[in-house]
Amino acid sequence: MPNSNLECEVSSCTFWIPTNVCAATRVSIADQYAKVPAGTECQTFIPRNSFTNVVQSISNLNWPGIISEPFNLGKQINPIISCSANNCTYWAEGDICTAKNILISGMPVSESPDSQCSTFAKKDSSLP
Ligand code: SF4
């Protein structure tokens, strides 16, 4: 299954790149009890407010995407998404997001609960 295209507006994150790109290799979206977008969060968020945080984020930086972006057509920098918000209509077994595009937002964001997946749509519980 192709990976969802992620757009992020959380400019206070160390992984955030202008043009709303996330430079993390892997992103974890939570959580299983969410009923509305505000009930979700990007657990990979690291505040861009200290040198220590920037250093901490290096191990999860998408170096292959960052290096190949200038030389290839199309978006090369896009994280692998794992999502545990199983109340979402786009959620699939294995914590897979089936949405074509997702938007991470929240303003201001100083810690991960301030962020949210604005693409979250509660599953219609009347359907099987
Ligand atoms: S908040 Fe999450 S999705 Fe946005 S840049 Fe940071 S890690 Fe990526």
Characterize the structure shown.
Helix content is 10%, strand content 23%. The protein has 128 residues and is α/β, with parallel strands linked by helices. It has one domain (5-117). The strands form 4 sheets. It has a 3-stranded mixed beta sheet with strand order 1-9-10, with no helix packed on it. It binds iron/sulfur cluster (SF4).
Content-based structural category: alpha/beta
Number of strands: 10
Bound molecules: iron/sulfur cluster
Largest sheet: 3 strands, mixed
Enumerate the strands of the largest sheet in spatial order, edge to edge or round the barrel.
1-9-10
- First-last Cα distance: 22 Å
* Low-pLDDT regions: none
Helicity range: 10-25%
Task: Give the CA-based shape.
Answer: globular
Question: How many separate helices?
Answer: 2
Whole-number mean pLDDT: 90
Secondary-structure element pattern, one letter each: EEEEEHHEEEEE
**Total domain count:** 1
What is the rounded Rg? 15 Å
- The fraction of residues assigned to DSSP E strands is 15-25%
Please give a handful of descriptors for the protein shown.
128 residues, alpha/beta, 3-stranded mixed beta sheet, binds iron/sulfur cluster
Q: Summarize this, please?
A:
The protein has helices at residues 51-57, 63-68, and strands at residues 5-8, 16-17, 21-22, 26-30, 41-42, 80-83, 91-92, 96-97, 101-105, 116-117.
